[in-house]
Amino acid sequence: MTTLPTSVSGPLADVDFAELEKSLQRPRTLINAALDVVVTAMTVLALIPLFSVVWMLAVRGGKKLSLAVLTQLPPAPLEAGGGFGNALLGTLVIVGLAALWTVPFGILNAVYLAQAKPEDRLATGVRFATKVLTGFPSILAGVFAYGAVVLLTGGFSALAGAVAISILMLPVVVLTAEDAIRAVPARMKEAAAGMGATEAQTVWMVLLPTALPGILTGVMLAVARAAGETAPLIFTALFSNYWLSSHGQIHLMQPTASLAVLIYNFAGMPFDNQIELAWAAALVLVLIVLALNIAGQALSRRLPE
Amino acid sequence: MAEAISDVQQPAEPVIDCHIKELWYGTFKAVRDTHVPIRKNAITAFIGPSGCGKSTVLRCLNRMNDLVRGFRFEGHVHFRGHDIYGRHVDPVAVRRHIGMVFQQPNPFATSIFNNVAFGLRLNGFKGEKMPRVEEALKRAALWDEVKDKLGKSGLSLSGGQQQRLCIARAIATEPAVLLMDEPCSALDPIATRKIEELMLELKSRYTIAIVTHNLQQALRVADETGFLYVDTTQGGRTGYLVEFGRSKQIFEAPQQKYTQDYIRGEFS
C-alpha cells in the first residue's frame, strides 16, 4: 500500500493504445462528426429567413430611404414623393405612451411577485395569468381596447392604440423584471436588512438599482415587440394621412398613423410609389426593433454576478 | 497578542443581556438555555462545532432571525435594559443600533462611497456625507487603499477589502454594538489578521460580538468567550451554552468536560 508501482501493471496494462487513435472509421467518432454537421446546418438554416428578410428590405427599401421620406406626409395616389413622417411619429408616440404606464406598473407588479409576497395565492395567480398573457393573440388585445376605449370615447385614437399595445407589453416587462429582481444575490438583501433597512428601502435602494440592467432589457424587448404590432392598431389607432400634432399641440384623441399600419395599407395599393414607401417603412421598422433588441442584449450583459 | 486578554479592566455592565430559553425554526428546536451577557467595549466570541447554533444566537441579538420563516423565540434580549423582543419594538429600528457584518463580504453593487453612505441615507441623514464616509473608512483601516477610487464599484475590491468596506458601512451610522458572523472565514490569513487588528481597534468605541470557528482567533481577540455544543439526547440537534467566561479561563482552564474535549481536540 505504501510502495508505488514501479512498472505499469494492473488495469492500466490492458490499454490498447491503437484504440485511442482518432479515426472516422469508428462508429463513435463517425456519429459525433455527423451530428456536428447536422447541428451546424440547422443553425445556418434558422438564420436564412432572418437574413433574407433583412437583405430584401435593405435592397428594396434602402434605395427609397432618405431624410425626406422620414419627415414628409404620405402622398396621395399617383402623387410622386412623400414619406411616412407622421407614421414614424405615431409609432413613437403610441409605444412611448404605452411604455409610460406599463413600465412602472409592470415593475411594481414584479416587486410584488419577486420580493413582497412571492408565494401567496395572489402572486401565484398573477404569475400564471401573466404567462398566459405572453401568448395572448394581439388581435384580441385590439378588440379589447376597441371595446374599452374606442367605443367609450367615441373614436379611434393614439390613446386607444397605446392601451392595446400595453396589454402586449405588460407580461414581458413583468416577467423579465421579476427574474431580474430575483437574480439580486440574497446576501445583498441580507446586508440591507442588517443595516436596518425597511423592506421598502431594500427594494428602492438595493433591489431595483441592482436589477436595473435586467429590467431595462425587458423594457427594450417589450417596446420592440410592441413597435411591430399591426392588428391591435387597426382596431384602435386606425390610420391618418396627417400629422398627430398641429400648432405645437399633440392630439392623442384622433386617428393616428403608425408604421405597421402604413405598411399594411400601402403594400396592398396598386401604386408603385406607395409600394416603395411600404418597403422603406418596413426597413425603418426592422431597424428600430433591431436597435432595441441590441440595446437590450448589451444591457443584460452588464448584469452583476 | 496576549495583551488582548488582559484581566485588568473590570467587566462593565452588559450592553446586551441575552436569555434564550427556547428558540425554534418551525418544528425544529435550534437553541435552548443560553444566557450570555455582551459587555460594553469588549469583544465577546461564540465558539462551538458546526450546527451548535452560535450564528443563530448572534442573529438573535439584532432580530435578524425574524426574517426566517417559522422563527419562534422564548426568552428575552435586553439591550441597555429594554427588551428588544417587546411587543412594541420595531425590529428594523433595532438593527440600526446593533449592526451586523456577515460571513461572505456583501457590498452592494454600487460605488465604494455609496456603500458606506448607505446607512446615512437610510436614516435620512441630511448633512455633508463625505466627512462621515471618510471617518468610517479610516476607522475600518481602508481609507488609504480606496481614497482615490471612491467612485469605483465596491465589488471591484479584493475579498479582504470588501469585508473592511462592509465594516465601514456598518460603523458609519455609529451603532452601539457590532455583530460579526464568522467575518474572516472567507478570507486569507493576511486579510484575517487585518480584520482581527481592526476589531481590537474598534472595541474602544464599539461593543463587538463575534462568531468564529477559529479557536485561535477567539483566543487572540475575545475578552470573553461562550462555548456552545449540540445536544442530541432529545431527538433533535439543539444547541445550548455549555460554558461562558473570560477567554483566558475558557481556553486555559475550562470547567466543563465538553469544553475541555473540544478545545483539546482542536488544538492537538
Structure description:
The complex is a heterodimer of chains A (305) and B (268). With 305 residues, chain A is mostly helical. Chain A has two domains: 21-62; 67-300, MetI-like (MetI-like fold, Orthogonal Bundle). Chain A has eleven helices and two strands. In chain A, strands 1-2 form a two-stranded antiparallel sheet. In chain A, α1 crosses α11. The longest helix of chain A is centred in the first third of the chain and has 36 residues, at 27-62. By secondary structure, chain B is an alpha/beta fold. Chain B has a single domain (14-267), classed as P-loop containing nucleotide triphosphate hydrolases (Rossmann fold), CATH 3.40.50.300. A ten-stranded mixed beta sheet of chain B has the order 5-4-1-2-10-9-3-8-7-6, sandwiched between helices. In chain B, α3 (112-122) packs across α4 (129-139), α3 (112-122) packs parallel to α6 (159-171) and α4 packs across α6. The model of chain B is unreliable at 1-8 (pLDDT under 50).
Supply database-style keywords.
heterodimer, A: 305 residues, mainly alpha, MetI-like fold, 2 domains, two-stranded antiparallel ribbon, 11 helices, B: 268 residues, alpha/beta, Rossmann fold, ten-stranded mixed beta sheet, 10 helices, 34% helix, globular, disordered N terminus
Radius of gyration of chain A, in Å, reads 27 Å
The proportion of residues in beta strands of chain A is: under 5%
Biggest sheet descriptor of chain B = 10 strands, mixed
Number of strand elements of chain B: 10
CATH topology of the largest domain in chain A: MetI-like fold
Biggest interface and its residues per chain?
Answer: A-B, 19 and 27 residues
- Radius of gyration of chain B in whole Å, from Cα? 18 Å
The quaternary organization reads as heterodimer
* CATH C-level category of the largest domain in chain A: Mainly Alpha
CATH domain fold name of chain B: Rossmann fold
